[in-house]
Amino acid sequence: MKLPFFDQNFTNRLKEMAENVQKELDSISASGASGGDMVSITLKANGEVLDFNISDEAYNLGSKEMLTTLIKAAIADAMRNLEAAKKEKEFELATKARDSF
Predict the structure, then answer these.
(1) 97 class by beta-carbon count within 10 Å (0-12 exposed, 13-18 middle, 19+ buried)
(2) How far apart are CA 73 and CA 77, in angstroms?
(3) What is the residue-level pLDDT of the chain in tens, covering all 101 positions?
(4) Where are the domains of the chain?
(5) Rounded distance, CA 87 to CA 81, Å?
(6) pTM of full prediction above 0.85
(7) 66 φ, ψ (degrees, to nearest 5)
(8) d(CA 71, CA 55)
(9) What beta strand segments (E) does the chain contain?
(10) Residue 43 neighbours by CB under 8 Å, 6+ apart
(11) C-alpha span between 97 and 13 (Å, rounded)
């Protein structure tokens, strides 16, 4: 009796699936905002910044500390949203992989 994990076709299929999963996870992006959208940012899964916006209203706050706080909050929001999107995609892909076997 030949076990499936010793079969080269099965191993190749698993490798291909893993590569596809990584590509899909790498393609995820998410946005975050703070101060009622005074500061917004969009991040890729690898942390690369795709977009960043500071509104005129945020510039006019007149406080470097407040602007810094808004920027940090927008980044934290984007990171939370990115992690949630990754977990959702991982669940979707795991379900699809399970159903293909």
Answers:
(1) middle
(2) 6
(3) 555 556 778 778 878 888 888 888 888 999 999 999 999 999 999 889 999 999 999 989 889 999 999 999 999 999 999 999 999 988 888 887 777 76
(4) 29-94
(5) 10
(6) no
(7) -65, -45
(8) 11
(9) 29-34, 39-44, 49-54
(10) 29, 30, 31, 32, 49, 50, 75, 78, 79, 82
(11) 11
Assign domain 29-94 to a CATH class: alpha beta
User: What's the token pair of residue 5?
Assistant: 């994990």
The pair of structure tokens assigned to 57 is 């209203």
User: Crossing angle, helix 64-100 and helix 8-26, to 10 degrees?
Assistant: 160
Distance, in Å, from the CA atom of 21 to the CA atom of 34, rounded to the nearest integer, reads 31
